[in-house]
Design brief:
It comes from Tenuifilum thalassicum. Keywords: Cell membrane, Ion transport, Membrane, Sodium, Sodium transport, Transmembrane, Transmembrane helix, Transport. It is found in: Cell membrane. The chain is of the alpha+beta class. It folds into five domains: 2-129, no CATH class; 131-482, Na+/H+ antiporter like fold, CATH 1.20.1530.20; 546-701, no CATH class; 763-904, Jelly Rolls; 918-975, no CATH class. The strands form four sheets. The protein has a four-stranded antiparallel beta sheet. Strands 2-7-4-5 form a four-stranded antiparallel beta sheet, with no helix packed on it. Strand 4 and strand 5 (828-833) form a beta hairpin. The longest helix is centred in the N-terminal third of the chain and has 41 residues, at 2-42.
């Protein structure tokens, strides 16, 4: 009683304050008009006076009308917050209490009680709400409620529950409509009071009343800890059948009013439904593309999402005439799925909080409005009350029939539903604001006879009221009776043990505080009264076996592993694709309920590995570049996931003992506990070993990918440390707030740049470094090297891939960035080449066929430079030709010197070092030339050594460095 009095006091205070403010505001605005009136009177202009008086009155009336909606919103928000605070421990759900208060407000206005106490503004605002345009309910409240519900869905659970939700929302609602309309026509045939109803009107009523709105039920399911699967299917059905009901409603309403679209009804249903999906998907894609370009700007990101929710509904309903509800659902799911990682980590929590607030405000307003509308607009006769109770029974029969028909199918789809779940689904099918809004649309349409439309509104309002007051208030009792809220013994035990740890920690803190000179005189007995103990958990656990504990601990370890992935993502240590891939895997494991070992990951390496088809597709003409980029990204993702996976396993190992607390409460002994912990430890270690092995292999095969990712991670760690340091300096008072903002802005820009940095960019840097370390190519200028990389292709080849075939034609030269290749002649292994080695240059220089077959010994990354690229670049950078010719010369020189008596004892590394200091000589005449060097190698053309008559043909090692060459010959001189 005290709570109700306090609530009424708050409302009266708001009313008096606002009435006073409105009186002052209205008086001030009408004052100039009164002055003008007195002037016109002095001029004896009666017509002008009358006109000004009318304008003054209409202006005053206009201000009153405009302020009524605003005051109703203010009043409703105060009622909502006061109700939530004062009745938070009450037995009735919050929304049902709001509905009751709406009924009370409507009754006060209907019986003119408020005007009696000179509370005209309250009466006007309530009358505005009671006669609200039903389209306003749909356009203003529905996008918020639908989007918030879709955005808060657990996507994995939603996907598994989608089949059952669609069954209930599409064929299920059609069955319910037919059963309800048949029952209405049966009542008419018995002469109960629906004399003017037609079958179409009965179908329309069935459509309106079949859409569920289980806001209160879902809140209770979450509160009592019922299955997430049950609450998800309940909420998913509600979202989808709102869309279905509105689509069917508009079709039947069009038939009744003569506005029905021509064409097949089924095709129209598909057009409206799939059109809504398309609108939502397109807007979702556009918004996600926008948001991912913004970094940590909450104002932009949240505003864009709000606008998208309303834009989807508006465009779908008003422009394209498709389902706005389905469009918003599609948008919400896209934001809850891929969009979850596109929103900046620093904004994600804020965005969730905002939509919770928006849904709270929308629910507050809409349930009060529903109560007011029912109280003001509904009129009941005795016969109407009888019909109402029959209709109330009918909708439950229709709901029961729907579930009964589809139950055999539903229990086999996705998670399935149990018999107990089906009972909650049946009884928890409340009707709410959508049903009432659709009924109001019918009630205000004069093309339908007044008696049936008034009856339709009365029946709908009555059923909304009855399901809210009866079903919503008893569903908690039903859930308890069915045992769906019962907590497992192992959970109770772990809860008690956790509370015991909290208590022990508090006792230690008390002992510590006793030594504090400012608190040593406290009454420690009274302080101890504030210790939390395990009496908070009323349940007394029964004994449990070690297998129960094993299952529960596995589930907790999986949840902790999932949290680790999202924490790593929020810190910038894991990519958005990586967190989705790893989290989805955890969701799949959680579906088994902890009954399988943590190490049974269904070939986790196959999930990480880059498909071999990607490495082959990159060789395709034209589109090969796209596939190459995808291949690089996939390798990056593989490394990213494996590293995060190992980090999560190491975290689980550290926390294993704390997560396995409380086991001694059951019937287990110390030996069992040790076996239990050892089993879990082995499972986690097996996971860690799998990840480490995968990483080691990946590092060996693709060291550049490892370098790129580790560079990104190290950069992000550095930026995180700098952010922490800025906050520390701020707390110490060494930085002013404006200085902190300026520095943080700089850090945020660096973070954004780091986020936008692609692996391909780092790969290009690796290629530039390789060019600088390759003899011959190292002479190319930086600008020319950049152009060379930009116009060339970087490709990855798996182990065993054939890069070139002997005696084939080639149009490119090749530089090894990473990995190792073997080259053969007549299937005989001639040698090995690795990073900073080239092949194919000699064939370019001499315009000859490929001399060797080249195979990848390990996965390799190769820079492929086409002949046409060399020709085009040589026109702009003529100086690059000599480095290319030198590279070709060193390539053949290395092969020749390996088989020379004077050099065969040297390693390939030493030979390369010798050749790197060689001198390139290009001879364009037939004169004698003498070169200073230990050896001369004829790379191109023909030459005669002095005192010899033999003509040497390239490639050849010359016996002396005193030669006469034919035109267009090339010699490399070894120092």
């Amino acid at each position: 009683m005290r709570r109700i009095l306090l609530l009424l006091t708050v409302l009266m205070g708001v009313s008096l304050i606002t009435n006073g403010a409105v009186s002052i505001y209205t008086t001030n605005t009408t004052l100039p008009t009164n002055e003008h009136t007195s002037i016109t009177q002095s001029q004896n202009s009666k017509d002008t006076l009358d006109k000004e008086e009318v304008l003054s009155e209409s202006s005053h009336e206009k201000h009153s009308i405009n302020l009524a909606p605003l005051f109703f919103i203010i009043l409703s928000l105060f009622i909502g917050t006061a109700t939530r605070y004062l009745f938070r421990k009450g037995p009735l759900p919050y929304t049902i209490l709001l509905l009751i208060f709406g009924l009370i407000l409507g009754a006060l206005a209907r019986f003119d009680i408020l005007n009696t106490f000179d509370l005209n503004l309250i009466a006007d605002s309530i009358n505005w709400a009671g006669n609200i345009d039903p389209h306003l309910i749909l356009y203003l409240f529905l996008p918020t409620l639908i989007f918030e519900a879709a955005y808060s869905l657990h996507i994995h659970t939603f996907k598994k529950s989608l089949g059952n939700a669609v069954i209930l929302a599409v064929p299920g609602i059609m069955v319910a409509i037919l059963i309800t309309s048949a029952a209405i026509m049966l009542m008419k045939s018995f002469g109960i009071g629906l004399n003017q109803w037609t079958f179409l009107l009965a179908l329309l009523f069935g459509t309106i009343i079949s859409a569920t709105d289980p806001v209160a039920v879902v809140a209770i399911l979450k509160e009592v800890g019922a299955s997430k699967r049950l609450s998800t299917i309940t909420e998913s059905e509600s979202m989808l059948n709102d869309g279905t009901a509105i689509v069917i409603f508009m079709a039947i309403f069009g038939l009744i009013t003569g506005e029905a679209a021509n064409g097949n009804a089924f095709i129209e249903f598909l057009r409206v439904s799939l059109g809504g999906v398309l609108v939502g998907a397109i807007i979702g894609w556009g918004i996600l593309s926008w948001i991912k370009r913004v970094f940590n700007d909450a104002l932009i990101e949240i505003t864009v999402v709000i606008g998208a929710a309303y834009l989807s509904f508006f465009l779908a309903e008003s422009i394209f005439h498709v389902s706005g509800v389905i469009a918003v659902v599609t948008l919400g799911i896209s934001m809850a799925g891929p969009g979850k990682t596109k929103v900046s980590p620093g904004v994600t929590h804020f965005l969730h909080e905002f939509w919770e607030l928006a849904a709270f405000i929308a629910n507050t307003l809409i349930f009060i409005i529903v109560g007011v509308v029912i109280a003001l607009q509904v009129n009941y006769k005795i016969s109407d009350v009888i019909i109402l109770f029959l209709a109330y029974i009918t909708i439950h029969i229709a709901r029961l029939g729907t579930i009964y028909i589809f139950y055999p199918l539903m229990k086999k789809i996705g998670y399935g539903i149990s018999f107990k779940d089906s009972i909650v689904l049946w009884w928890g099918g409340l009707r709410g604001a959508v049903a009432l809004a659709l009924a109001l649309i019918v009630a205000i349409d004069s093309r339908i006879p007044i008696e049936p439309r008034n009856q339709l509104l009365s029946l709908t309002a009555g059923i909304v009221l009855l399901t809210s007051l009866i079903n919503a208030t008893t569903v908690r009792w039903l859930i308890d009776k069915l045992g769906l809220s019962k907590v497992d013994n192992i959970k109770i035990s772990l809860m008690k043990q956790s509370l015991l740890q909290v208590k022990l920690s508090g006792e230690k803190e008390i002992e510590k505080l006793k030594s504090n000179r400012y608190m040593s005189g406290a009454d420690w007995k009274r302080v101890s009264d504030f210790l939390i103990d395990n009496s908070l958990t009323e349940e007394t656990p029964e004994s449990f076996d070690i297998n129960d504990a094993l299952i529960e601990t596995r589930k907790r370890l999986l949840q902790k592993e999932k949290e680790s992935y999202w924490r790593q993502f929020n810190m910038g240590m894991l990519s958005s694709d990586g967190v989705h891939l790893l989290s989805d895997q955890i969701d799949v494991l959680l579906d088994f309920g902890g009954k399988i070992p943590l190490s049974e990951r269904q070939d986790i390496e196959k999930i990480w590995k880059a498909p071999k088809t990607l490495s082959k597709l990159q060789n395709l003409p034209l589109i090969g570049k796209i596939w190459k980029r995808r291949f690089i990204n996939r390798l990056t993702l593989s490394y990213d996931c494996a590293r995060a996976f190992v980090a999560a396993q190491e975290e689980n190992l550290k926390s294993l003992s704390s997560l396995a607390i409380g086991l001694s409460i059951g019937e287990s002994d110390d030996t069992s506990n040790n076996d239990f912990l050892s089993m879990l430890e082995d499972e986690i270690n097996a996971n860690r070993l799998t990840g480490q092995t995968f990483l080691r292999n990946l590092k060996e095969k693709y060291p550049d990918i490892r370098t790129n990712i580790e560079t990104l991670l190290a950069s992000r760690s550095l930026l995180n440390q700098q952010e922490e340091m800025i906050e520390k300096l701020k707390k110490q008072g060494r930085l002013e707030p404006d200085e902190v903002t300026q520095i943080q802005s700089k850090v945020q820009n660096l973070l954004k740049r780091l986020t936008d940095t692609s692996t391909e960019k780092y790969t290009n840097l690796k290629v530039a470094e390789t060019i600088k370390n390759t003899p011959g190519l190292d002479k190319i200028s930086s600008e020319a090297a950049k152009q060379l990389i930009a116009k060339s292709q970087i490709k990855f080849f798996p182990e065993g891939a054939v890069l070139l075939k002997e005696k084939s034609s080639s149009k490119s030269v090749f530089l090894i960035i990473n990995g190792t290749i073997n080259y053969y002649s007549n299937q005989k292994l001639l040698g090995v080449k690795e990073s900073c080695n080239t092949f194919g240059f000699y064939e370019w220089l001499t315009s000859s066929k490929i001399r060797h077959t080249v195979k990848a010994e390990t996965p390799v990354s190769i820079l492929i430079i086409s002949y046409s690229t060399i020709n085009s670049l040589s026109k702009k950078y003529p100086e690059i030709l000599n480095p290319f010719k030198f590279t070709a010369s060193t390539e053949i020189a290395l092969e020749l010197l390996k088989n020379n008596e004077n050099y065969k004892n040297l390693t390939s590394r030493k030979l390369r070092k010798i050749i790197s200091n060689a001198q390139l000589e290009i001879i364009n005449d037939e004169e004698k030339h003498r070169f200073e060097g230990s050896s001369c190698i004829l790379v191109k053309g023909e030459a005669i050594v002095e005192n010899e008559d033999t003509l040497s043909h390239a490639p050849a090692i010359l016996s002396e460095c005193n030669v006469r060459c034919k035109d267009d010959s090339i010699i490399i001189v070894i120092p």
